[in-house]
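Suppose you are handed a protein chain with no further information: no name, no annotation, nothing but its sequence. What can you learn? This example shows the usual starting point.
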Amino acid sequence: MLLFCAVHCVQALSVIDNVLIVTVFPLYFLPTFVDYTSLYTDYEQLSAFHQFVLVYVLPVAFVAQTATIWVTVLVAVNRYIAVCRPYQVVLLF
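A reasonable first move is to predict its three-dimensional structure. Written in structure tokens, the prediction is:
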């Protein structure tokens, strides 16, 4: 039972980390890249995209970051129970 939970926790952690990577990319990399290279000159359209990102993508990034932290804590507790308290698993669950 504990191994089953560990597998699902690691899978959830990988999915949440991928969501975090995908949401952080337009938030931090694209504006810096555009400012540095000066390849994109239509500032009105860029401003509209940046407002969209701030309104819709930023909360998803914060939720993914918080979920990553809590799933990591869950994996740590799971591994602590599996390694340090293997005989008390039946009493805990």
